[in-house]
Write a structure and sequence with these properties.
- The protein is an alpha/beta fold.
- The chain has one domain (about 15-260): 3-Layer(aba) Sandwich (Rossmann fold), CATH 3.40.50.
- Helices cover about 40% and strands about 15% of the residues.
- The protein contains eight helices and seven strands.
- A seven-stranded parallel beta sheet has the order 3-2-1-4-5-6-7, with helices on both faces.
- Strand 4, helix 4 (about 110-140) and strand 5 (about 150-155) form a beta-alpha-beta unit.
- The chain is globular and about 50 Å long.
- The relative contact order is 0.14.
- The mean pLDDT is about 95.
- It binds nicotinamide-adenine-dinucleotide (NAD).
Length: about 270
Amino acid sequence: MTEPQQPQVLAGQKALVTGGSSGIGAGVALALARAGADVVVAYYSSPDGANEIVAQIKSLGRSAIAIKADISKPDETRALFDQSVAAFGTLDILISNAGLQRDAAFVDMSLDDWNQVIGTNLTGMFLCCQLAAREFLRRGPREMSKALGKIVCMSSVHELIPWAERANYAASKGGVKLLMQSIAQELAPKRIRVNSIGPGAIRTPINREAWETPEARKKLLELIPYGRIGEPEDIGQAAVWLCSDAADYVTGQTLFVDGGMTLYPEFADGG
Ligand code: NAD
């Protein structure tokens, strides 16, 4: 049986997804392609994963290429955008998704743990957003999108919820919140929309130990009122909507996709 066709709300648009070879990024890359976009799958460490996602996108009838870049490095990030524009002519959508954790008790956290997480999750986000905005402004309007360009920052429920032994990660996502809102404010007059998605617990390699064993899964589910762990497809659907003209009046927002994790579930029985 063939999959039902999805509305092609992103038909003809060109998207770049960082961290596109695994987890949420792979799910978003596939969802964008199903909605009609061609996709650059930017990857860091897994050419096999990236090539697999590229093959799946091509089987949907869309164009896709895999490009390697460490987005914490300005020269590699610039080369990623240059190669993407050379391949596709321009970009309409950035999904700035690449991120990592280096967990440690605060008193033991090394400067390297701190710098690596901030360097990718926040500085890398800054570099990618800046290069995307420059490309939207260089190229000017296109008929297939009301906005000049769309940026989605992959934040986290931890832009809101403090997280012990992950001060570097929570600080990076808290930084993403005001980075996103500040550039959304600045770029709105240019008709560039900038939003974040705040995933809750999504089943990916980054948090394998939180869902792999039945005991860990039970503990995790206590934090999720909706009663299931999220899948990359849940984030993919949200990204498609945020990038589509259906969300043309939405900018500067974090859309939490978390099964209610940010609803203070510990107060559900009166606290
Ligand atoms: P993941 O580990 O599968 O994906 C992270 C991706 O980022 C990987 O492909 C990795 O190679 C890439 N990456 C890491 N450092 C990089 C660098 N310097 N340059 C380029 N790419 C780099 O995990 P995921 O869960 O899919 O994470 C994707 C994003 O979602 C991250 O920003 C993460 O913080 C966020 N997030 C995940 C969850 C969750 O529950 N899985 C929850 C909230 C937020």
